[in-house]
Amino acid sequence: MIGGFIIKGSAAKKVLITAKGPALADAGVPAVLNDPNITLHNASGQVILSNDNWSTAANAAEIQAHPARPRYAQEAAILTTLDPGVYTAIVRGGAATTGNALIEVYEVQ
């Protein structure tokens, strides 16, 4: 799954980017991606950050404090500050698995 987004304006913004799979089953979505991994790329295609399980992130406590945090340990999240520009988040399944997933991007105040 690929999700693109743009940071507008002249100032950097802090964002939370999540890749949810197991949480979708709670909403009745079938065949969810059980172990989503997320990789964040800049406009040049370079990898900026990646995450498999959100609780392994260096800033996991800050991610946990956000109301839109992943509910399941195997879901992925990146919390970072990005300069204005174009970005792409790519979600893949761990161990080459497939299924339904959701990418979310939130501005963090």
Folded structure, characterized:
The protein is mostly beta strands. Helices cover 10% and strands 43% of the residues. It is built from two helices and seven strands, in the order E-E-H-E-E-H-E-E-E. It has a four-stranded antiparallel sheet with strand order 1-6-3-4, with no helix packed on it. Strands 5-2-7 form a three-stranded antiparallel sheet. The chain is globular. It starts with a strand and ends with a strand.
Secondary-structure map:
Layout: E1 2-7, E2 13-20, H1 22-26, E3 36-41, E4 47-51, H2 60-65, E5 76-82, E6 85-93, E7 102-107
Antiparallel strand pairs: 1-6, 2-5, 2-7, 3-4, 3-6
Question: How are the strands ordered across the major sheet?
Answer: 1-6-3-4
Low-confidence stretches: none
Backbone CA Rg: 13 Å
Termini separation:
27 Å
- What is the strand tally? 7
Largest sheet: 4 strands, antiparallel
Number of helices: 2
Structural class: mainly beta
Tell me the overall shape. globular
Oligomer: single chain
- Strand percentage lies at 35-45%
Outline of this structure?
The chain has 109 residues and is mainly β. The chain contains two helices and seven strands.
Core attributes:
109 residues; mainly beta; 4-stranded antiparallel sheet; 10% helix
